[in-house]
Write a structure and sequence with these properties.
The chain is α+β, with helices and mostly antiparallel strands. It has one domain: 3-Layer(aba) Sandwich (Protein Transport Mog1p, Chain A), CATH 3.40.1000. It is built from three helices and eight strands. Strands 1-2-8-7-6-5 form a six-stranded antiparallel β-sheet, with helices on both faces. A two-stranded antiparallel ribbon has the order 3-4. Strand 3 and strand 4 form a beta hairpin. It starts with a strand and ends with a strand.
Length: 171
C-alpha cells in the first residue's frame, strides 16, 4: 500500500478572528491535513491510502484522531471508501467553500487571508480535486448529525507529491 506521511496540520478556527461588523462566526472551522507521498502514484491509490491512514480516523467533533476509531466526520468509517469521492473542478470546490465561509455575511480580512494561504492555495495548486459525496443519513454514526454543514475535499498536487485533506464544518 502507498505510504502517506503527515506533513502539516492547520486548524483554521473562525472564532479566532474578529467578526465585529461581519455577522456571526457561526462556530465554523476548517481542518487542513497535508500528506507527502512517493512520486507517480495514481489518484485512486492515494485516496485509498488516505482512507486507510490513522489520521483519517477523526470524528471532527473535538475528540481528534482515534487510531482505533470507527468514525470519520458524520459517517461510520466503514462507509467512507475511495469510491465515495467524486472528482470536482477546483473552481467548483473553491466556490462551495467560499459560499460556505461567507454564508452569514462578509468575513474579516484576517480570516480571508488565512483561508487564501491555507485552504484556497491547496485547491488552487491541485492537479486534481475530489469531494466526499453525501453518503446519506443512513450511513451516519450514532451522533453523526451534529454538524449542520460538513464539506470534505481532497486536493492532490501530483507535481509536488502533496495530498491535502480539507474538512470544513461547524460545531
Amino acid at each position: 500500500m502507498t505510504e502517506l506521511v503527515l506533513d502539516t496540520q492547520v486548524l483554521v478556527n473562525f472564532q479566532h478572528h474578529d467578526f465585529t461588523g461581519h455577522g456571526p462566526h457561526g462556530h465554523r472551522w476548517v481542518d487542513v491535513k497535508s500528506f507527502r507521498f512517493p512520486q507517480g502514484i495514481q489518484d485512486r491509490e492515494l485516496l485509498a491510502a488516505l482512507v486507510a491512514h490513522e489520521q483519517f480516523r477523526d470524528d471532527y467533533a473535538g475528540g481528534g484522531v482515534d487510531p482505533a476509531g470507527t468514525r470519520h466526520g458524520p459517517y461510520w468509517l466503514k462507509h467512507v471508501t475511495a469510491h465515495a469521492y467524486r472528482p470536482v473542478a477546483n473552481t467548483d470546490a473553491l466556490r462551495t467553500l467560499r459560499g460556505w465561509a461567507s454564508r452569514h455575511g462578509s468575513i474579516p480580512e484576517s480570516l480571508e487571508e488565512t483561508l487564501a494561504s491555507t485552504v484556497h492555495a491547496s485547491i488552487d495548486s491541485a492537479t486534481s480535486c475530489y469531494h466526499l459525496q453525501d453518503l446519506g443519513h443512513q450511513k451516519f454514526h450514532d451522533w453523526g448529525g451534529v454538524h449542520s454543514d460538513f464539506h470534505e475535499y481532497i486536493a492532490i498536487d501530483q507535481d509536488r507529491a502533496l495530498l491535502t485533506l480539507l474538512v470544513a464544518a461547524d460545531d
